[in-house]
Amino acid sequence: MRTDSLFGDSVRPVLGSALQGKDVERLRRLDLHGDLRRKLLPFCRLKCGEIWEDKVLGHRVGVLDATKPDDVAKLSRDARVRLVVNDPPYNVAVGGASTDNLSKVDLKTYLEFSERWVRNVLRVMDADSHLYVWMGADCKDGFQPLPDFIVLMRQFSDLRSRNLITMRNQRGYGTQRNWMWVRQELLYYTRGNPEFNVEAEYTDIPKILRGYYKFVNGKLTENGERSKSQFIRAGNVWVDIQQVFYRMEENVSGCYAQKPLKAIERIVMASSAQTEVVLDLFAHSGTTLVAAERLGRRCYTADIDPVFAEISIRRLEHFRKTGRTGWQFENPFPELDLLTRAGGGDELRLEGPVEKHLSLDAPETAGNEDSTWRS
């Protein structure tokens, strides 16, 4: 769930005091701290329109616009994508008087944006393929954009609506005068008749229901007798996935509301096979990229913001080097250790020989045989 990349600098920077202690995130929320995000740009190896290519499994990461057909075609090239997992901006003004808000645009603008990126993914999707879309609903504004996006999708006749999945968060938002909002919605569509791996749906939750009987082939059988597994299937209400927060290894500081790796891996295992391409046009923290890496798929992902594209690449490199899926509360940009606060304020100044870190002509991939980048 993101708003900063779509809506540019319309997000108001909210500057706070320096983070203290070892158990807090070392990088503030990038969707709210525009000044900090701009300071990270010199550390990004890709510029707009460029693509980083991985020589190990063939992943691609680009700084590209999901609404531009040429950008999506440039990322996918001749590949026919079997699975698309997109987590576009939600357009939900989460927050209140005591919390920071996400940005929001008018509904017409949001639906025009959505229609453009959907048309672009349809151009590269295989005849038999899956499409998953995370989508929000603003309870303060007629639950937009979820119902409006669902209606919008009806115009695409070659897509078949298959399910509306709810993932329950352990934490939520709300007031003392309303039910706390703890859900995230995932829309599932298919084109053609793609294969679905039902084994990926089974959870770690033991099946405990007894006493449910029905006739099968003329024999009265109990629920446990009919089961293919001792565990329950996730169904379309996912309650077994931990919401990501700063004490978890997979957490990426600065990336608000990143999707849990377990959720993305469930989708990837259910709706793709090894070596197939998974497309994600809203990379954010790089979760789809890491899921594809762990499961032996190729991921083609992009973000309109160079900072999130860089975070995605770094997360993959970090995983390969350490086996860790994220940084927990540590900073994915260790270069910022060279930055110190001047005069106790919020302005940052550079100390030491940092020229090599600030050169866009010398990205980290230089001399790295595992990757290349191109424009």
Structure commentary:
The chain has 375 residues and is an alpha/beta fold. The protein has a single domain (4-130, 138-162, 240-374), classed as 3-Layer(aba) Sandwich (Rossmann fold), CATH 3.40.50. The protein has helices at residues 4-7, 34-40, 69-76, 107-124, 146-153, 223-226, 261-271, 287-295, 306-322; strands at 51-54, 60-63, 81-86, 125-135, 137-138, 144-145, 159-173, 181-191, 202-206, 213-216, 219-222, 231-233, 237-238, 277-280, 298-303, 339-341, 348-350, 371-374. A 10-stranded mixed beta sheet has the order 13-7-8-4-3-14-15-2-1-18, sandwiched between helices. Strands 5-6 form a two-stranded antiparallel ribbon. The longest helix has 18 residues, at 107-124. The chain is globular, with a radius of gyration of 22 Å. The relative contact order is 0.19. The model is unreliable at 1-21, 96-100 and 340-368 (pLDDT under 50).
Q: Sheet bearing the most strands, described?
A: 10 strands, mixed
Side-by-side strand order of the widest sheet: 13-7-8-4-3-14-15-2-1-18
DSSP helix fraction: 10-25%
Number of helices: 9
Q: What's the average pLDDT?
A: 82
Give unreliable regions as ranges: 1-21, 96-100, 340-368
**The CATH class:** Alpha Beta
Kindly estimate the percentage of residues that lie in beta strands according to DSSP.
Answer: 15-25%
Examine the coordinates and then state which fold CATH places here, giving the name of the CATH topology: Rossmann fold
Instruction: Please state the overall shape, judged from the principal axes of the Cα atoms.
Output: globular
Derived structural class: alpha/beta
What number of structural domains do the residues give?
Answer: 1
Count the beta strands.
18
Distance, first to last CA: 27 Å
